[in-house]
Write a structure and sequence with these properties.
Layout (H helix, E strand, L loop, with lengths): L41 E5 L8 E6 L7 E5 L4 E5 L4 E4 L14 E7 L2 E9 L11 E5 L7 E4 L17 E3 L7 E4 L5 E4 L7 E3 L12 E7 L2 E6 L11 E4 L6 E2 L11 E8 L4 E7 L10 E7 L4 E4 L7 E2 L5 E2 L2 E7 L7 E6 L8 E4 L7 E2 L5 E2 L23 E3 L7 E4 L4 E4 L4 E4 L9 E5 L8 E5 L3 E5 L16 E10 L2 E11 L4 E4 L7 E2 L6 H4 L4 E3 L6 E3 L7 E4 L7 E3 L9 E2 L7 E5 L4 E5 L7 E5 L8 E5 L7 E5 L3 E5 L7 E3 L4 E8 L9 E7 L4 E6 L7 E2 L14 E4 L2 E8 L5 E6 L1
Parallel strand pairs: 28-32
Antiparallel strand pairs: 1-58, 2-3, 3-4, 4-5, 6-7, 7-8, 8-9, 10-11, 11-12, 12-13, 14-15, 15-16, 16-17, 18-19, 19-20, 20-21, 22-23, 24-25, 25-26, 26-27, 29-30, 30-31, 31-32, 33-34, 34-35, 36-37, 37-38, 38-39, 40-41, 41-42, 42-43, 44-45, 45-46, 46-47, 48-49, 49-50, 50-51, 52-53, 53-54, 54-55, ...
Length: 734
């Protein structure tokens, strides 16, 4: 099940979602004044799923008991709060325009100044992503100062589990080093306030890894180089003893198994530097690797690889993998832990040595895993895996039995080297694609996500007891819808190994796969809709394939040639014969009045450049449609799409949903991710979009939140917001 836990989520891949949830007059709206904040404010919390993303780094503070930090590839950074046993998010203040900074490339602490923390931010190095930034804090991440860089960082690219690429100089707390992928080494002499290139002898290459790690060994700084090919004369490890000149480390290992230095850890007692290597940066694509140690006092290298990759498995396959994490025991000389990575045949493990690498023990072999707090880690009934994508690895400097390691979905921890459980409370990293808040039933929320499929949230404060939806299991959800007149009937679509569509007759608690599916579902599963009474299904498969219709609960399917390809089907919440779709290529709204058999063009709206949109149907009303267009604002139709009218109260609309009406109001509350003034924010309207109030604040922004938003049809004021890396956020008035 190697697809689970992958973090290849893109903020540009927000799926268009049809809204579901509960009268009439057209919205006339006002000008583009910024919406006032909601009176009394909102309280924001995560809907608990429990991790669900790639933990790329974990860092115990060497000088403070109980203080640690964690980074992710798209979901920001966290600080461990020992008294509460929770991780505290540190970067939720980053807003819409700074979405790229939710990827944390590296982090650093200052051993001499426990309150100082540094983060290097930037998810992508492509031209469309924008430059990176460095955040610096003097109060453990409670407040920040920011410096924008002139280079790009790649926290969600290959090599994101390497590191750390950021380091406080061991000789001077005012000096910091930052390794980049394409721009060499940067140096700051004013605690991260400004940065300048520092001379470095290696030239960036096509691999796009550059400097993979920076680590202090005494007063010497070592730098890993990921663009080497591992041959003699192309070194992968450099050092500087004076902070000015750099040299290749003599005698270092060569060959494919030592091509990329992934992680390094220094044992100050024995003065030995341990380095894990792989033939690729990972987390995918590694097939070889090794572990070596350097005795810094005399320059002697020793290979201490626990198990060499490439052996045969019981079924005749090959046991290929690289090495990832590395950490030393600050209390016990010669005690080290390292991890394998990308070991799919025999499952990744953490090895431990107490004699400097002469002998190793696999901690997986006697591990007892308890995932009861996050049942989705059973992956639909299978036994939980010890790990995959293990590149983040930490050993508590104050407790030799406390080891933690990150995977593609969680952070496992132990206090006795045998019993392991997720140490993940507070961390939510799902990339959320769809949200449904049913008008009745046990659950107030169903969520569809990247990597972990669909979840049924019977409680918002605990990970779903049923885990991820099964029969079939989806790695990534592409569609989720309920029948408004029969909300116990729910359908979903996604990427699965044993079918790409499923239905539920109990509100999403249990599922069954469709008896058949169109061929396109296997290669391009897209959004799905069900009619008001559940009698008709419409399934879209992108621009390369026609949509399909089923009138027998997925037993048979037929093409719908007149449905605009690539559009998202939307069901009328009252009339089972009506369906709608918006074609962004022509800017035309299409409608069906014969149960989805045929579609015809209706009104048009300007949609140039708006591949991201949402068409939503107001609950309890036939033909009452709202169209959110990323660059062209918000439109409304009260006649089933025959006409569309611009809503002037906001100038940018990314996604819109409905919730319970305010007391005394006859129309459901509207929730909008968009802009009424200069700030993209979450808004609520109780008067059909005539006026808006902002319901989030500057401390709660979560980067890109344009996938979907919905209110709760049973709780006035409650709103659920999908994020791209911070899970589902929900807010309630205080």
């Amino acid at each position: 099940m190697s697809t689970f836990g992958l973090s290849r989520r893109s903020v540009l891949a927000g799926t268009v979602v049809a809204a579901a949830a509960a009268s009439l007059p057209a919205a006339q709206g006002r000008a583009h004044a910024a919406a006032p904040d909601a009176r009394g404010g909102y309280r924001w919390r995560n809907v608990v799923q429990g991790g669900t993303g790639f933990v790329t780094g974990v860092l115990f503070h060497p000088s403070v008991r109980g203080l640690a930090y964690l980074r992710t590839d798209i979901g920001g950074a966290y600080r461990w709060e020992d008294r509460s046993g929770r991780w505290i998010p540190l970067t939720d203040h980053l807003g819409w325009d700074d979405w790229n900074l939710l990827g944390v490339e590296a982090m650093a602490v200052d051993p001499a100044h426990p309150d100082r923390l540094y983060l290097a931010l930037g998810a992508y190095t492509q031209p469309w992503a924008g430059n990176g930034a460095v955040l610096r804090s003097g109060d453990r991440g409670a407040t920040w100062q920011r410096t924008d860089l002139t280079v790009r960082l790649g926290a969600n690219e290959d090599g994101r589990g390497c590191g750390e690429r950021l380091l406080v100089d061991p000789r001077d707390s005012d000096t910091l080093w930052l390794g980049t992928r394409h721009d060499g080494l940067l140096k700051s002499t004013d605690r991260g306030a400004s940065w300048a290139p520092a001379g470095f002898p290696a030239t960036p290459g096509a691999a796009g890894q550059g400097i993979t790690l920076l680590v202090a060994a005494g007063r010497t700084v070592y730098a890993g180089w990921g663009d080497s090919d591992g041959t003699a004369g192309r070194p992968a490890l450099y050092r500087s003893s004076d902070g000015t000149t750099w040299e290749a480390v003599p005698g270092q290992p060569t060959g494919a198994a030592a091509r990329v230095p992934v992680r390094a850890a220094y044992d100050r007692h024995t003065r030995e530097l341990y380095v894990t290597y792989a033939d690729a940066p990972g987390p995918n694509g590694q097939s070889d690797g090794s572990v070596h140690k350097l005795r810094t006092t005399d320059g002697r290298w020793t290979e201490v690889t626990p198990v060499r990759p490439g052996g045969r498995t019981d079924d005749g396959g090959r046991d290929t993998f690289g090495y990832g994490g590395a950490a030393v025991d600050a209390r016990r000389p010669g005690t080290v832990v390292v991890s394998t990575n990308n070991r799919w045949a025999l499952v990744d493990t953490v090895f431990r040595t107490t004699d400097g690498g002469r002998t190793w023990t696999s901690l997986k072999d006697r591990a007892v895993l308890d995932v009861s707090e996050t049942p989705y880690l059973e992956w639909g009934g299978a036994a939980p895996k010890f790990g995959w994508w293990i590149q983040a690895l930490g050993l508590d400097p104050f407790d030799s039995g406390h080891v933690v390691y990150g995977t593609g979905a969680t952070l496992y921890g132990t206090r006795d080297l045998r019993h392991w459980a997720p140490q993940i409370r507070g961390v939510e990293e799902a990339s959320v694609r769809q949200l449904l808040s049913p008008p009745a039933g046990e659950a107030h929320l169903l969520s569809g996500c990247g990597d972990v499929g669909v979840m049924y949230h019977e409680r918002l404060t605990a990970s779903p007891s049923r885990g991820m939806a099964t029969d079939p299991v989806f790695a990534t959800s592409t569609g989720l819808a309920l029948a408004p007149a029969r909300p116990s009937y729910v359908v979903r679509a996604g990427w699965g190994d044993h079918g790409n569509g499923a239905f539920s007759h109990d509100g999403g608690q249990t599922w069954a796969p469709f008896a058949s599916q169109p061929d396109a579902a296997r290669t391009a599963p897209g959004p799905i809709a069900t009619g008001a009474d559940g009698g008709v299904l419409l399934w879209s498969f992108g621009t390369a394939h026609p949509a399909h219709r089923s009138a027998d609960n997925g037993r048979t399917w037929a093409e719908v040639p007149t449905f605009p390809r690539g559009a998202t089907p939307v069901a009328d919440p009252v009339d089972p014969a009506r369906f709608y779709a918006f074609d962004t290529t022509t800017g035309t709204l299409h409608a069906s009045t014969d149960g989805g058999l045929t579609f015809s063009a209706r009104a048009s709206a300007p949609s140039a450049g708006d591949s991201e949109y949402q068409l939503a149907a107001a609950p309890g009303r036939s033909g009452d449609l709202w169209l959110s267009l990323k660059w062209n604002g918000l439109y409304r139709s009260t006649d089933g799409g025959t006409s569309l009218r611009k809503v002037d109260s906001c100038w940018a609309a990314y996604t819109l949903g409905f919730g319970k009406a305010a007391e005394g109001a006859s129309y459901p509350a509207l929730y909008l991710v968009g802009a009424t003034g200069t700030t993209t924010a979450v808004h609520r309207s109780d008067d059909e979009a005539r006026t808006w109030v902002r319901v989030n604040d500057d401390r709660h922004q979560w980067g890109w939140i344009g996938a979907t938003v919905t209110g709760d049809p049973r709780v006035y004021g409650r709103v659920y917001v999908a994020t791209n890396g911070r899970g589902v956020q929900y807010g309630e008035p205080v």
